[in-house]
């Protein structure tokens, strides 16, 4: 049983902003299949009434006080940017508004 | 021991510096020279900071001359896995997408190394974003196993392990998400410790899987590892998952273990590990079993325990880690830092982002991003990520039940020894099996160390000791005790890489 | 051209269902997950750090003050505070969001199930609150090359991350049916009440024009007895007045579509302040898949009973109670107080009184002349360039006889034009009541001489006729005389 199609991989790649080649689509579809098959074994496990675990020690109410700390120097902020203008990060035109 | 500086252990170097037998500059220079001599072959380093390391060493010498008291590892040089952020030093996570990025800040553990006055020799190679078990997925270079340069050094922290195995550094920092400290340790004949999750700050550790990533020490002995462990560990208010509790006394435990007595210590062997269809290679099993016999001779009691949910550890891991990774790696979009490609003035942002990520990420990273995106996408999050988190609970319960009977669990660290380059890259699932025995501790969050136990067909085999959450000390004690049964120490028997003059991977002061 | 029904026709055939989603920026000193300052108007990218720039390796730590502020809002909105709650990642790519996921809350919001009662036309409506949750704001994007900074037609965009990571509280109502023709007013009254409640808590300056409070307005229509219709979500609604206008417009637009048998698209629409219209935004063709999952970098929150109760005890008097108290203090009738509330003048009047004015004077200026000015320019009353202290000063000058009402209005002109405070404007423009009786007597004499017939009538006891002479004197003195004084001089001279 094939769990993941080429088209589905293409859709996921779009969601993840990955421009994948046709060869990659084929390769990934095949490889993901194997991995997903293994993951499906989890379906066998009875987890009714089991609470999820996310961390070794469950920490609660970890906060910081509302006291300002120095920000980065602006040069350091902008230094990493592939393209900056007017002290801002320049990006190509945004085609479709998403948010 | 030997007179060569590079053969000495970190504790010896620290004492020599403290007591004036060696200067920190001499020590650091020795390791820098060693890197220059052999890293052309091993290719463990992505970047070497000769100037910075020597400057720190000089500070140590000046401090000593001024009569200041030196910390436990002052002047002892260290290599840092290139997934840990270092201010002013290139940090790439072995990915093209971060090529040329110079971080404006230090990871907390790097701050601690600096506070401890440990010269940072440079940044070591890894599988891109720590995703892999052979370091073959580095976007920059293939690191060789010093025991056989035609074989992988393990991964993802193959660079750190190979650097220590080849004596280019007495200590290194690794990070362990599914075994990336322990597995390279096992296949390079070095010691590697994964501390309890949350006992070491992740701030400044480039995230792969947030709920699993743990930085830890790489060394040749458990005692050295324990010293480094104590330098970097402890609560960090900048990491919300950092545990605010005293660091387990691992150094003391390692010294106790080094007395060679394990009387009264109960060690559990996991029934299901031995039974799995993917069980370890015969040579690995033989070396491991010989190690178990040694532990018995030291006074340990061996008890078989059952951890039925461990069977599901691998698929659980391959749901959680890629899911978190797909989100953690979304930030590499070519807007604020790193690579940008395809911005020709015509293309829109979405396309430029996609082209950038296509060009910047290697195949394993893409595979995991797509896998994680799938696992989190509409309708699947409960069936996959949510389910995996519940199975995690079952695995944790297995550990907790076992620790009612035993002090620690032991197993081979990996099912197979270092394989040849290219042997498993074509089949991701075969690669994933390398972490079969190490993953349960990551899912549980407890500590695990790998200590060399023997050889299989001339290649090192590691024994893993897994402890309860915040019970890191027992893992060091058992590892240090096992080391006392080796004369010479297995970690010291790696074939010496002969100095040669290839400087291909060597760069100074910036790439 | 979009087809529109008249509002009356729309309401005759359909029942509207409202829903409001409001984002409020908290005014904590630091951002939600890092220690960067939140000072408004800083230089671009001057308030960013590894965390809010999403540099590799950086990790978030939640701001306790923001969590408390959110719980206070929840409590003031009669919500239940969760005993166990956590953050979640909302994954989508957008350049103003550094991590390409927003740290928000999903299935476990901090506060749930509250309500707000609002009164419109003497009728009380209960707006039920579904959830109040905590998240982070995005950076600001400047669109370059297109017309008037809009995204459409822009050739590139420039991003400033100062705002990225500022704590944002999202307040979502349950659907509000049953408001009938008053839907627009109920929507506005809810937004107003919400703003007043949040402002009274002192956790945000809730200024819609500055974007620290932003409303998305959902509207659907259905025929009586039918199921609820498909809703649209209108964004970019930047004032209380616009909340009302947006609802009204959507009712008119949707009803026209439904009349002609068309379907309503579930879509995001944008409100245009200048025209009062809405236009379609992103279509939901490719529904966004946010891939929510629990944020592994943050600890869960378990607000203790003691913590919640301490916060509850710290809540100030609710705005509604406070209004009732002020109405009594100021001696206003229900209608008058309602006008004050509608004009959004409660705080302004209170501050004016605090600055020394009497209640009636303060009410008079804000509800009268200043409301008229605000209406003329379409501005919010509070956005006028005059402070409560200046209004109190102005009223003081009137009470001292230094200004009359007409002069006072001219002084307001000057203050609004930025010429300074009332005293400065009066001095600079020479707007003072003429109190030099010599000059006034001369002007009266002139008026009597010019109007002998009127003077005769007054002499004959018809004091009411004095008005004509007063008018003449005022004209001669360009209004700078005090009418009472002039009247007295006239009567003294002619009796
Ligand atoms: Mg929101
Ligand atoms: Zn910040």
Structural commentary:
The complex is a heterotrimer of chains A (99), B (511) and C (495). Chain A has helices spanning 6-15, 22-39, 74-79, and strands at residues 63-64, 84-85, 88-92. Chain A is α+β, with helices and mostly antiparallel strands and 99 residues long. Chain A has a two-stranded antiparallel sheet with strand order 2-3. In chain A, strand 2 (84-85) and strand 3 form a beta hairpin. In chain A, helix 1 (6-15) packs across helix 2. The two termini of chain A are 37 Å apart. The mean pLDDT of chain A is 89. Chain B is an alpha/beta fold and 511 residues long. Chain B contains 17 helices and eleven strands. Chain B has helices at 10-18, 24-42, 50-65, 108-115, 158-165, 182-188, 222-232, 250-257, 271-275, 282-297, 313-328, 349-360, 363-376, 382-405, 428-432, 439-444, 472-483, and strands spanning 45-48, 78-81, 120-124, 171-176, 191-194, 214-219, 266-270, 301-305, 408-412, 448-456, 459-466. Chain B has an eleven-stranded mixed β-sheet, with helices on both faces. In chain B, strand 10 (448-456) and strand 11 form a beta hairpin. Mean pLDDT of chain B is 95; it is low at 501-511. Chain C is α+β, with helices and mostly antiparallel strands. Chain C folds into three domains: 7-310, no CATH class; 319-429, no CATH class; 437-493, Arc Repressor Mutant, subunit A (Orthogonal Bundle). Helices cover 39% and strands 18% of the residues of chain C. Chain C has 17 helices and 15 strands. In chain C, the strands form three sheets. A nine-stranded mixed β-sheet of chain C has the order 3-6-7-10-1-11-12-13-14. A three-stranded antiparallel β-sheet of chain C has the order 5-4-15, with no helix packed on it. In chain C, strand 12 (232-237), helix 4 and strand 13 (268-272) form a beta-alpha-beta unit. In chain C, helix 14 packs across helix 16 (466-476). The longest helix of chain C is centred in the middle third of the chain and has 20 residues, at 240-259. The mean pLDDT of chain C is 92. Chains in contact: A-B, A-C, B-C. At the A-B interface, helix 1, helix 2, helix 3 and strand 3 of A face helix 11, helix 12, helix 13, helix 14 and helix 15 of B. Strand 3 (88-92) of chain A pairs antiparallel with strand 9 (156-160) of chain C, so a sheet runs across the interface. The structure holds magnesium ion (MG) and zinc ion. Zinc ion binds at residues 31, 34, 36, 48-49, 51-52, 165 of chain C.
């Amino acid at each position: 049983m094939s769990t993941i199609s080429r088209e589905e991989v293409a859709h996921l790649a779009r969601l993840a902003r990955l421009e994948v080649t046709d060869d990659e689509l084929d390769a990934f579809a095949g490889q993901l299949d194997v991995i997903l098959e293994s993951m499906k074994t989890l379906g066998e496990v009875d987890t009714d009434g089991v609470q999820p675990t996310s961390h070794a020690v469950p920490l609660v109410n970890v906060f910081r006080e509302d006291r300002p700390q120095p920000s980065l120097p602006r040069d350091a902020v902008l230094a990493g940017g592939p393209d900056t203008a007017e002290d801002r990060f320049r990006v190509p035109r945004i085609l479709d508004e998403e948010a | 021991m030997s007179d060569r500086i590079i053969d000495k252990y970190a504790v010896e170097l620290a004492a020599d510096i403290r007591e004036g037998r060696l200067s920190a500059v001499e020590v650091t220079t020795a390791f820098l020279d060693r890197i220059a001599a052999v890293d052309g072959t091993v290719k463990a380093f992505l970047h070497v900071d000769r100037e910075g390391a020597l400057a720190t060493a000089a500070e140590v010498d000046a401090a000593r001359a001024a009569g200041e008291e030196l910390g436990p590892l002052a002047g002892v040089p260290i290599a840092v896995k290139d997934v840990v952020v270092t201010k002013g030093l290139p940090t790439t996570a072995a990915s093209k997408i971060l090529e040329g990025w110079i971080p404006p800040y230090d990871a907390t553990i790097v701050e601690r190394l600096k506070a401890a006055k440990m010269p940072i020799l440079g940044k070591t190679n890894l599988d891109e974003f720590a995703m892999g078990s052979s370091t073959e997925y580095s976007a920059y270079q293939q690191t060789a196993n010093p025991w056989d340069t035609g074989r992988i050094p393990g991964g993802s922290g193959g660079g750190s392990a190979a650097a220590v195995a080849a004596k280019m550094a007495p200590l290194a920092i690794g990070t362990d998400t599914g075994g990336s400290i322990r597995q390279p340790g096992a296949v390079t004949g070095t010691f590697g410790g994964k501390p309890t999750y949350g006992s070491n700050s992740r701030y400044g550790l480039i995230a792969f899987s947030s709920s699993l990533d743990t930085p830890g020490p790489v060394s040749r002995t458990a005692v050295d590892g324990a010293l480094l462990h104590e330098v970097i560990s402890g609560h960090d208010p900048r990491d919300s998952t950092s545990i605010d509790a005293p660091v387990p006394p691992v150094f003391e435990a390692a010294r106790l273990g080094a007395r060679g007595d394990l009387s009264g210590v109960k060690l559990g062997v996991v029934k299901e590990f031995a039974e799995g269809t993917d069980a370890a290679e015969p040579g690995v099993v033989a070396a491991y079993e010989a190690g178990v016999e040694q532990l018995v001779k030291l006074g340990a009691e061996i008890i078989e325990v059952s951890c039925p949910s461990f069977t599901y550890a691998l698929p659980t891991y391959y749901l959680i880690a890629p899911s978190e990774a797909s989100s953690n790696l979304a930030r590499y979009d070519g807007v604020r830092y790193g690579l940008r490609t395809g911005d020709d003035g015509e293309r829109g942002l979405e396309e430029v982002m996609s082209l950038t990520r296509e060009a910047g990420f290697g195949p394993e990273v893409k595979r995991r991003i797509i896998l994680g995106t799938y696992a989190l996408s509409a309708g699947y999050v409960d069936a996959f990520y949510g389910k995996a988190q519940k199975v995690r609970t079952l695995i944790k319960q297995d550990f907790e039940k076992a620790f009612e009977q035993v002090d620690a669990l032991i197993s081979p660290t990996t099912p197979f020894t270092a394989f040849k380059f290219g042997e498993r890259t074509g089949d991701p699932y075969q690669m994933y099996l390398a972490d079969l025995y190490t993953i349960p501790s990551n899912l549980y969050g407890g500590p695990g160390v790998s200590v060399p136990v023997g050889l299989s067909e001339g290649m090192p085999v590691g024994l893993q000791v897994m402890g309860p959450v915040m019970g890191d000390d027992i893992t060091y004690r058992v590892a240090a005790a096992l080391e006392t049964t080796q004369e010479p120490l297995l970690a010291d028997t790696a074939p010496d890489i002969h100095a040669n003059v290839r400087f291909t991977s060597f760069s100074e002061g910036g790439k | 051209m979009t087809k529109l029904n008249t509002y009356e026709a729309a309401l005759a055939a359909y029942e509207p269902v409202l829903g409001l989603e409001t984002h409020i920026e908290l005014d904590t000193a630091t951002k939600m997950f890092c220690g960067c300052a939140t000072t408004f108007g800083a230089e671009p990218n001057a308030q960013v750090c590894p965390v809010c720039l999403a540099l590799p390796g950086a990790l978030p730590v939640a701001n306790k003050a923001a969590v408390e502020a959110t719980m206070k809002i929840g409590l003031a909105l009669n919500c239940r505070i969760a005993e166990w709650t956590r953050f979640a990642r909302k994954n989508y790519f957008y350049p103003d969001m550094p991590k390409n996921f927003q740290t928000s809350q999903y299935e476990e919001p901090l506060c749930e199930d509250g309500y707000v009662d609002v009164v419109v036309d003497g009728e009380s409506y209960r707006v039920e609150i579904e959830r109040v949750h905590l998240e982070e704001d995005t950076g600001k994007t400047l669109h370059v090359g297109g017309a008037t900074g809009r995204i459409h037609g822009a050739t590139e965009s420039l991003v400033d991350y100062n705002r990225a990571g500022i704590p944002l509280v999202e307040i979502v109502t349950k659907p509000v049916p049953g408001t009938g023709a008053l839907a627009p007013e109920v929507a506005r009254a809810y937004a107003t009440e919400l703003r007043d409640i949040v402002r009274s808590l002192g956790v945000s300056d809730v200024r819609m024009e500055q974007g620290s409070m932003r409303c998305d307005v959902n509207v659907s229509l259905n025929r009586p007895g039918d199921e609820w219709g498909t809703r649209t979500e209108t964004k970019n609604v930047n004032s209380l007045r616009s909340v009302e206008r947006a609802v009204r417009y959507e009712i008119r637009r949707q009803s026209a579509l439904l009349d002609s048998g068309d379907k309503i698209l579930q879509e995001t629409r944008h409100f245009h302040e200048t025209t009062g219209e809405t236009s379609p935004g992103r279509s939901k063709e490719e529904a966004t898949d946010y891939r929510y999952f629990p944020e592994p970098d943050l600890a869960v929150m378990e607000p203790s009973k003691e913590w919640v109760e301490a916060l509850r005890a710290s809540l100030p008097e609710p705005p509604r109670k406070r209004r009732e108290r002020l109405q009594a203090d100021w001696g206003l009738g229900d209608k008058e107080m309602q006008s004050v509330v509608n004009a959004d003048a409660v705080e302004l009047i209170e501050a004016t009184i605090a600055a020394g004015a009497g209640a009636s004077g303060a009410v008079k200026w804000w509800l009268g002349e200043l409301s008229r000015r605000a209406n003329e320019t379409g501005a919010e009353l509070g956005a006028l360039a005059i402070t409560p202290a200046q209004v109190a000063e102005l009223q003081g000058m009137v009470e001292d006889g230094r200004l009359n009402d007409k002069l006072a209005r001219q002084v307001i002109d000057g203050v609004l034009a930025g010429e300074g405070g009332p005293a400065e404007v009066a001095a600079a423009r020479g707007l003072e009541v003429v109190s030099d009786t010599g000059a006034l007597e001369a002007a009266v004499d002139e008026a009597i001489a010019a109007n002998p017939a009127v003077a005769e009538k007054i002499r004959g006891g018809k004091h009411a006729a004095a008005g004509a002479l007063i008018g003449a004197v005022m004209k001669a003195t360009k209004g700078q005389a005090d009418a009472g004084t002039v009247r007295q001089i006239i009567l003294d001279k002619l009796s």
